[in-house]
Amino acid sequence: MIPALLIAAALALGIPSLSFVSPAPGQTITGPKIAVKIAVANFALVDYKTHPKLVPGQGHLHLWLDQTKPTKTSAVKAVSPAYTFENVKPGTHILIAELVANDHSSLTPITTTSVTFTTASPSLLTTQLSLLTPIVIAFLSLALTLYFVSTVKPKTGKSLRKSRSKLSKSHSRK
């Protein structure tokens, strides 16, 4: 709620602002990919490589994932409000975003936001079960079929297993 109020105030004043759409604060994301979406207001995101001159109200994003001392050189430079981090290890993470000018300098006032979220690896048991389910079903079907076939009683009232053993004994005596 507060980020929405800040953006509304920034819009009214024409001040550049940004906030995380995703990940959400405290969100748990399953898997190693983090899809980042940022809402930007009163600021045009442009490619700093094709727009190297300083122009008020335009620039790009710097992103830092789990960096305790973020610098311009360690930043991921993004020219779009969407970015995906790959191979993120399970755990708690802090993501920082800053709006910067085309020359990578901070705006005045500095315009940053951060979000804390968690990543979790997919459950190994869930992954294994999803792969093994068809095999387990086939095995159980076969086992049950063999069990019932071996224990069906013929019209004699005796189990098939006993009938077969008597039959084999009578054939062996001849």
Rg over CA atoms: 33 Å
Give the second-level CATH assignment, the architecture of the largest domain: Sandwich
| DSSP E strands, number | 9
Largest sheet: 6 strands, mixed
Specify the CATH homologous superfamily of the largest domain: Immunoglobulins
What is the tally of helical segments?
3
Provide the CATH top-level class of the largest domain.
Mainly Beta
Descriptors for this entry?
3 helices; 3-stranded antiparallel β-sheet; alpha+beta; 9 strands; 6-stranded mixed β-sheet; 31% helix; 2 domains; Immunoglobulin-like; 174 residues; 34% strand
Structural description of this entry:
This protein has 174 residues and is an alpha+beta fold. It has 2 domains: 2-120, Immunoglobulins (Immunoglobulin-like); 124-173, no CATH class. Helices cover 31% and strands 34% of the residues. It is built from 3 helices and 9 strands. The protein has helices at residues 2-13, 124-151, 160-173; strands spanning 17-22, 28-30, 34-41, 44-45, 58-65, 76-78, 82-85, 91-101, 106-120. Strands 2, 4, 5, 6, 8 and 9 form a 6-stranded mixed beta sheet that branches. A 3-stranded antiparallel beta sheet has the order 1-3-7. The protein is rod-shaped and about 100 Å long. The model has no long low-confidence stretch (mean pLDDT 83).
Give a quick rundown of the structure.
This protein is of the alpha+beta class. It is built from three helices and nine strands; from the N terminus they run H-E-E-E-E-E-E-E-E-E-H-H.
Secondary structure layout:
Layout: H1 2-13, E1 17-22, E2 28-30, E3 34-41, E4 44-45, E5 58-65, E6 76-78, E7 82-85, E8 91-101, E9 106-120, H2 124-151, H3 160-173
Parallel strand pairs: 2-9, 4-5
Antiparallel strand pairs: 1-3, 3-7, 5-6, 5-8, 8-9
